[in-house]
Amino acid sequence: LLAPRHGLASHVEGETQAALHRKTHRPSLHSHVDCYYHCNGQGPCDGWCGQGHACCRTGVFTLGCPATACDGYHCCVQAVPFPAPPPPSPPPPSPPPPSPP
Questions:
Q1: pLDDT of 45-61, one tens digit each?
Q2: Which one of 12, 14, 19, 87 has the minimum C-beta count within 10 Å?
């Protein structure tokens, strides 16, 4: 009989997580470096992370960040689109002309 291989499940799970990470995270500049301070916080960060990328962390919800990023630190990931701001409000209507005396 063969002895059970300890850690096999975690190894397989790790491979699955790595495959998911490759599928959902496009390559970016500095993808394995904590970007929080380089980006002055989280969210879109073209300057440090590269065009179309954002500095995000799993479980911290910010515009431009996917629901899943890096566990335990902020990393550069492909930014997700977020809604455009609403158009400005129209100006108030002009007052009616004064009535004749």
A1: 999 999 999 999 999 88
A2: 87
Tell how far CA 72 is from the center of its chain.
14
- Residues facing 43 on adjacent strands: 55
Distance CA 74, CA 39 (A): 10
Q: In what order do the strands lie in the sheet with 43-44?
A: 43-44, 53-56, 75-78
Q: State in Å, rounded, how far the first CA of the chain is from the last one.
A: 110
The predicted model scores a pTM of 0.54
Single-letter code of the amino acid located at 89: S
CA distance 60 to 26: 19
Instruction: Please check whether residue 51 is in contact with residue 69, taking contact to mean a CB–CB distance below 8 angstroms.
Output: no
CB of 27 closer than 8 Å to CB of 52: no
Nearest to 53 by CA among 84, 74, 83: 74
